[in-house]
Amino acid sequence: MKFGIFFELEVNQGYTERDMWHNALAQVAFAEQVGFESVYAVEHHFNPGYSHSPCPEIFFAAASQRTKTMRMGTAVQLLPIAHPVRLAERIAAIDILTDGRYDFGIGRGAYTKEFVTFDKPHAMGETKEVNRELWNECLDIILKCWTLEDFTHAGKFYNFPEPINVVPKPVQKPHPPIYAATGSVESYELYPKMGFHIMPTTAVQPIDRLAPHLAVANRAWKAAGHDVDRGQLEVNCLVPVHTAATSTAAAERMKDYELWYFQKLVEFFSPKTEADHARHAQMETRWWENTNWDYIQSERLVICGEPKECIEIVKEFEEIGVTRLMCQFQVGGMPHDMVMEALKMWGEEVIPTCA
Predict the structure, then answer these.
(1) Selection from 258, 279, 230, 270 nearest residue 328 by Cα
(2) Dihedral sign, CA of 225, 322, 320, 111?
(3) Cβ atoms within 10 Å, residue 53
(4) Which domain holds residue 349?
(5) CATH number of the domain to which 47 belongs
(6) Predicted local confidence at residue 184, as pLDDT
(7) How open is the CA angle 130-134-139, to the nearest 5 degrees?
(8) CB atoms < 10 A from the CB of 143, how many?
(9) Total domain count for the chain?
(10) How far is it, in rounded angstroms, from Cα 120 to Cα 123?
(11) Cβ neighbours for 154, distance < 8 A, ≥ 6 positions apart
(12) Positions in the chain whose pLDDT score sits under 70
């Protein structure tokens, strides 16, 4: 098992935006010291409180200068609302700043206000397939930017009739590894078949629901022959995490912050209108209806407990095929000192046993 840390960059409990960004950078540097091998952050827009992370590549530009070994990556960059050439330029620059330590995490989006504001097709509902077509075309253009000296493009959404040579090029050849968010059932087969590693989350999905999807993903990866030239399918799983000297202490410390965080997920991502409910109709769970701590903890939406208990839960994730945990220690405005304590304990007592 690999262990990374993960950020939404939430602003709560008296934090300023400056506090949260600088605390997160300090946590990144400390996490590398205690054994974490990676760090990931989201791209979100218009989510006050819940996420102040509209430009994760800028956050990682700073983090790249505070670390030496950690891999870094978006979880995820929202392709349908980005201009592919501008995004290709920025990610190539970050790959240079990290000396080839960058993972390109990509997704189709979920938040209605982002699609409305940027005038792009929603990833669910009637525009689902158009969104997927846009996602595919954006990715195609980005890969051309990174691998071709000169190219033109004539597509459904973008046209570049005059040859362009996009610079800089990434350090990693032919390009940084690609990780795709698995937000729909079909994506667990589609993305591994395409040669992309995957990023599920237990933040709203019980572990027993995740297990069969990962089995499908691994079969698709192997059936396409990717295990021969690329090794195993990497599965980066996002999960909020906390540890303390006792299980009771861990729960007491995490509970209120996790419940605040979960309520923010409900506020921004649960269906509100009839159209929203229609878009969510095919989801496996009505996750927004289960907001109590007992459910969240028992269904492994979080990993919370003393180190020995956390180790046993980590093994559950490993058994279903998760290869990297993106551990969200900074959750719900938890105090910086409390986060640092949990990072230290996890690095000293969990990572040596599980990594």
Answers:
(1) 258
(2) negative
(3) 22
(4) 2-354
(5) 3.20.20.30
(6) 82
(7) 150
(8) 16
(9) 1
(10) 9
(11) 160, 161
(12) 276-285, 287
Query: What values do phi and psi take at 34, rounded to 5?
Result: -100, 10
d(CA 294, CA 276): 27
Crossing angle for the helix pair 84-97 and 56-64, to the nearest 10 degrees:
20
Give pairs for 253-257: CB < 8 Å, separation 24+: 253/334, 253/338, 254/302, 254/304, 254/331, 254/334, 255/293, 256/332, 257/331, 257/332, 257/333, 257/334
Q: What angle do CA 110, 114, 117 make, to 5 degrees?
A: 150
Q: How far is CA 40 from CA 17, 208, 328, 343, in A?
A: 18, 24, 9, 15
State if pTM tops 0.85. Answer: yes
Q: Which of 63, 69, 70, 135 is CA-nearest to residue 94?
A: 63
The single-letter code of the amino acid at 50 is Y
- Non-local (6+) Cβ contacts of 279 within 8 A are 122, 124, 125, 271
